[in-house]
User: What shape does this take?
Amino acid sequence: MLETINLSKSFKGKKVVQDLNFYLNDGESVGLLGPNGAGKSTTISMISTLIKPTSGKIILNGVDAVHKPGEIRSVSGVVPQELALYQELSAYENLKFFGSIYKLKGTELEKAIQQALEFVGLEDRKKDLVKIYSGGMKRRLNIAAALLHRPKILILDEPTVGIDPQSRNHILEAVRALNQQEGTTILYTSHYMEEVEQLCDRLYIMDHGKVIAAGTKEELLSILSTEDKIKVELSRIDEDIVQQVETIEGVRKIEVAELQLRIIAAKGSNLISKLVHLTEQHHIQLINFHTESPSLEDVFLHLTGRKLRD
Amino acid sequence: MKSVLWAQFLKDKRNPLLILLFIAGSIVATLILGGGVQSVTTVAIFSEEANASEIEEKWGALLNTNDSFKFEIVDPEEAREDVRDGSSDVAVNLSEDDYRLLVSKRMPGVSYVEQHVASVFQQEVQISAVESQEDGNVRDEMEEYLADAPFQLESQGVDGEQIPKFNIRTQLLFAFTFLISMFIIGFKVNNVTQDRVSGIWDRMILSPVKKTGMYSGYLLYSFLITMLQIVVVLIMFKYVMDYDVGNNLWLIILISACFTFGMISIAMLITGFVRTPEQFYAIYPSLIPLIPLVSGAYMMPGTITNPVLLFIADLFPNAHAMEAIMSVVFYGAGLQEVTMSLLYMLLIGIVAMGVGINLVERRSS
Ligand SMILES: Nc1ncnc2c1ncn2[C@@H]1O[C@H](COP(=O)(O)OP(=O)(O)OP(=O)(O)O)[C@@H](O)[C@H]1O
Ligand SMILES: [Mg+2]
Assistant: This one.
């Protein structure tokens, strides 16, 4: 397990990361979310031991990683925010170089390169020079270069900025597969809410160098609202059922529109199961229901008064 | 280190044009600026005095004593025209006991012509001063005396072989070759900054590669590619263009190697002061051409006498390399005679490298 305790970093007296407390369990997929300049990259640089914290601790399996960076370096792979690739070389040559600095050789190296290329879907373009790659392909190769030594922890710093939806999906799928099939622990940085929602079990929201909220998506959403908005579509609606729904505990308001019921209820009122029960009793089919929940975007807005992206 | 070296090599293999251009550049620069393939530079002389032909003949004979120049009597108009349109660099306007140089551009060869003409005129002034006080044929006596002097000067190499006389073209060959080398070194050493900015450096830091391995990969590659350029150019000039580069090519290569090491360190030192490769490109090329200028690499040895300039020149490997090479090529010096120069260059290299790498490392933390 990786954890940080009061991790802080200042550049020339300016506090860029402040008292960050954070943990990452084995096999987890955790998101670090925040707007530009929130301190995400700085945090990642500290965790990956590229820069030293001004104060605070980073602990990997009980070992202080600031003073003994060897362990965390060997188990982690870092996908930097910038494209750290030789543009003048081919994808294959790049991977060969990045593999060889991890002391991979011969068939082992070739196998690692092949796997990494397949993983990001670039095997048929491996001979092409990186400089003629599309932005999305460069991003994918940027990830592949961090996978060669089979890291247990993969740290990605905004791996999808500025690319087409196709490459973006490819990257998201690949990262998910790593996490779910290979059990790789993921720390994923982004300012795209949807990506983090899709990919991560837990997330931290950062702003101005501080974590302003942390937890599972549900936990974060619960910050925002004590109510659920539910839309239910039924095979038929009569007075009777509307009245009975109104009596369910926690229901605050009902609107009827043709075959739809719009219900606003207190959070955690277990409305769905009660609805299912009720409709069965009345021999009404529950055709569809839909919870309109607030998004993480709304949570961010709520916490900071600002939008995550302009 | 091997991986770093390999990646640097691959990049150049993909794009060898730059290195080839640099090698061609050092050859072309030497040929053009050093006065061409022919071993003798022709210098036009003329006079516009009343007794022009007499004067021209007298000085023509006196001036044509140096193997490197051929002084040719030319029509004054023609000579002026040639200098004006740049087709010749220099012409000499003679009068009874004075001269004027017509110079189109300050080519390095010009100062050598200037020096030669000046010394011939000076000698003549001395002779006629003596003549005016004593009667008799002083000149004949002097020549007679010199022909059978009590001690004779004859230059010989340590191994008894004939040593070529000083020759500005050979000096310029090395001056230009080293100038181009310094640019190659700059380009290659700047890869450190380039890779730091791109994030490749960080990838290496996180990998098991050691810092020393990283630096030595970049620097060794810079060294090897620069030595390739120097050796190719030297071999071209020695065997294809028949330049005098002395009989001790290995020693010259050793001196060049020390020079290259010293200059790589200077480039590393500059790297320590910059944040981006662009900053390096702004500083390095404007600084580097000054070093051979201050070191007098384009001028006759001993032309620069200003102690401040001499001191500054001594801080860079250029002056030491030129001095060592000139003494090997023209005076047949051996390893022992140039050891001091080699040590100076190594010392400059070690100090600059130490400071440079320290600055780079401090930047990153
Ligand atoms: N080396 C540095 N020196 C000075 N200030 C820095 C340095 N690195 C980062 N900063 C500052 O720290 C703050 C946080 O930067 P950081 O790169 O960590 O943000 P980020 O969350 O990754 O932003 P983005 O989404 O734009 O990548 C910024 O204000 C930035 O200007
Ligand atoms: Mg960032």
In short: The longest helix of chain B spans residues 168-198. The domain at 41-136 of chain B is CATH 3.40.190.10 (D-Maltodextrin-Binding Protein; domain 2). The CA atoms of residues 128 and 135 of chain B lie 11 Å apart.
